[in-house]
Amino acid sequence: MKKQKSIALLTTVFALSTALAGCGGGGNTGGGQATQPSGDSGGSNGGGGGATEKIVIATVGPMSGQYSDYGSTAKAGAEYALKQNQEKFKALGFDIQMLTQDDQADPKQGVAVAQMLISNADVLGVVGHVTTGASITASAQYEQDKLVMVSPSSTGSNLTDEGKKVVHRICARDDQQGSKAAIFAKNQLNVKNAYIVHDKQAYGQGLADEVKKQFEKDGVTIAGYEGITAGEKDYSAVINQIVAANPDMIYFGGYYSDAGILIKQARDKGYKGVFMGGDGYDSSDLVKIAGADNANNVIFTSTVGDLTATEEGKKWISDFESATGNKVGIFTSFGYDSMNVLLHGLEEAIKANGGKKPSREQVLDAVHQVKDFQGQFVKVTFNEKGDNEFASVYVYKYENGEKVYVGEAK
């Protein structure tokens, strides 16, 4: 009896893993399962009474590990958008499902996830990846099979500069974010000299390089430029150099986990100047790591604006939180708009294909041609590179443990 049960179980597991083509290495949160509306499943009847065809949209980012806040918030927004559109696509004869995958913000895992998604013929688009490093490596795989991606948050300039047609993003690039951060620091914070640090990763170093370039252009003195190893717990070597130089500002290109440690250790050594970074600082965990007092007046730029600035934005937040039980996080809004952009392209491809299920290349072409699409939070027109012509950069700071909106970076 046990042997029969074991065979049955193995058969079930094999069938499931084959259908989902799950990501190897344990990098799969939520089992990589397709997200379906309550009480619905693939092959259900459409509005016209006929069987629906399945179409899968993947959402990929770090769902586990120290950067999981970025992936999980983008996924929550994407899932909300997909569920709002399922009935519309059902009327067209299609059952739209979502498949979530965890790339752990790891470029190697990004490749593994991309290859898995490519092997699933029902996947016609990807919302993601969330981080630049994983997006770059994954995009090389998607390009081979014309599988379109729309990233809510990968800001690295070289992502779209490499010339891959599949790559699209709705957020601003690092050269926009970095240059505007430097201009803001000089003009609004009166910074005369700065010490620049980065985490040696695609996002962090790319952002730091852009800040350095703009500072040099504007005559701000670079007191030092150093790379650190992300994930370490003691940065005293570089902090001692910084404290000795006593710059007006420390700019760190990297994520909140390392930024929080740098801020705390620098403050403990008596540094009183300004800290600044990019949207990698946008996490309440930075305040927990650095300490609320140490985080006061830490400045950061973001590609996402203030969602509470309008009554419409406040209502959307309320509706989202009521419907999902989730709090709005850093990339919830752009995960939502990225999914809506991709679904808009998918709908256009279906129409252009006479109502039939389109190919990946047809969906890619339709997304690439998106012009003046008004999302909930950002307007989208993709240029030839796949960058959004309407992307902007915004400034925030931490005050008494809370994130405070400063304004648009000019």
Automatic annotation (TrEMBL):
<dbReference type="Pfam" id="PF13458">
    <property type="entry name" value="Peripla_BP_6"/>
</dbReference>
<keyword id="KW-0813">Transport</keyword>
<feature type="signal peptide">
    <location>
        <begin position="1"/>
        <end position="21"/>
    </location>
</feature>
<keyword id="KW-0732">Signal</keyword>
<dbReference type="InterPro" id="IPR000709">
    <property type="entry name" value="Leu_Ile_Val-bd"/>
</dbReference>
<protein>
    <submittedName>
        <fullName>Branched-chain amino acid ABC transporter substrate-binding protein</fullName>
    </submittedName>
</protein>
<keyword id="KW-0029">Amino-acid transport</keyword>
<comment type="similarity">
    <text>Belongs to the leucine-binding protein family.</text>
</comment>
<dbReference type="InterPro" id="IPR028081">
    <property type="entry name" value="Leu-bd"/>
</dbReference>
<feature type="domain" description="Leucine-binding protein">
    <location>
        <begin position="55"/>
        <end position="399"/>
    </location>
</feature>
<dbReference type="InterPro" id="IPR028082">
    <property type="entry name" value="Peripla_BP_I"/>
</dbReference>
<feature type="region of interest" description="Disordered">
    <location>
        <begin position="28"/>
        <end position="48"/>
    </location>
</feature>
